[in-house]
Each structure stands twice: as C-alpha cells, then as structure tokens.
C-alpha cells in the first residue's frame, strides 16, 4: 500500500461533492502547499468532514485569514452545525467566531472566568 490509494465510486462522489460545496473546483488538482492560506483551511476542513465526525474541534482555524475569508469559513461551519455536528471552537476574538456556538467558556491563565449558555456579543476575548 502506498501513499495514494484508489477510492471507490461512492467515496469519489463524496469528494467531488465536498470540492463543489467548499468552492474548490479550480484547485482540485493543486498541491495543498501551493494553495492560498484560506483555501488550505477549507481543504483541511473538507478532509475532516468527509470522515463524518460526531465532534469537530477547531483550534483558531481562522488565524491569519482576512475578514472575508473568516466570514466565509464560519458560514460553512454554521451550515455544518445545522446538520447535527457538535463543535468545539477555540478562538481569541468573538468577532471571528461562528454564529452557531451555543456555549462560551472564557479562560484566563487556564482558569475559567466565565461559563455561559449562548452568547451573541462581539468583543475581544481575553
């Protein structure tokens, strides 16, 4: 078995569907390392989503992305969460978080300083 494996028709159809969903058609034959950062993040998310995880943990996935890329990425996350996916999303700025989050745990030096259900403010996290 090598690095590259042939996949079945059903899995190939899933791959094509995700490529289309994440608007990556023009990049599907490119190496990950040559893609722009925003597209790399989408490819990595798609690679995770194809495994249909029950829990998705994202640690600052929008770090280094501009506002438009962040909004697009988080819009996709919001859509994924409407399909029943559980998400833990780590971020430093509330303005960069997706709208689907239902709980907020605010930490300062490893100590919980706030634990609330649902939030909709847009202020910088400590």
Could you describe the 3D structure shown?
The protein has 126 residues and is of the alpha+beta class. It has three helices and four strands, in the order ααβαβββ. A two-stranded parallel ribbon has the order 1-2. The protein starts with 8 loop residues before the first helix and ends in a 9-residue tail after the last strand.
Q: Determine the structural class based on helices, strands and strand pairing.
A: alpha+beta
Helix and strand pattern: HHEHEEE
Summarize the main sheet.
2 strands, parallel
Helix segment tally:
3
| Overall shape | globular
* Radius of gyration using CA atoms only: 16 Å
Q: Which regions have little confidence, pLDDT < 50, spanning 5+ residues?
A: 120-126
The total number of structural domains is 2
On the 0-100 scale, what is the average pLDDT? 84
Summarize the structure.
With 126 residues, the chain is of the alpha+beta class. It has helices spanning 9-21, 37-49, 67-82, and strands at 55-59, 86-90, 103-108, 111-117. Strand 3 (103-108) and strand 4 form a beta hairpin.
